[in-house]
From TrEMBL:
Protein name as catalogued: PspC domain-containing protein
Organism of this sequence: Thalassotalea algicola
TM region positions: 38-66
GO cellular component: plasma membrane
UniProt-annotated location(s): Cell membrane
The Phage shock protein PspC N-terminal domain, residue ranges: 11-68
Length: 70
C-alpha cells in the first residue's frame, strides 16, 4: 500500500515572509485558503476600518503567534 506525499503532509497556517507587506499574516492566510493576496489585504483593511480595535488586536496576535514558513 502506498500513499501519495500530499496525503502525508499536514497543511499549516503560517506567515508568508516572502510576500509580506507588514508581517506576512495576510499573505499567509491567502496562501492557506488559496485566495488572491490583494483580496485578503483589502478585507483586512475593511475590517480595520469597520472594527478597528478587534481587527487590530487580531492582527497583532496573529503576527505574534503564527510561525514563519521555513
Amino acid at each position: 500500500m502506498s500513499y501519495e506525499r500530499s496525503y502525508l503532509m499536514k497543511k499549516q497556517l503560517t506567515k508568508d515572509v516572502l510576500n509580506k507587506k507588514l508581517s506576512g499574516v495576510c499573505a499567509g492566510i491567502a496562501k492557506y485558503y488559496k485566495l488572491p493576496r490583494i483580496a485578503v489585504r483589502i478585507a483586512a483593511i475593511l475590517a480595520l476600518i469597520t472594527f478597528p480595535v478587534a481587527a487590530g488586536v487580531a492582527y497583532i496576535v496573529a503576527a505574534m503567534l503564527l510561525p514563519t514558513r521555513a
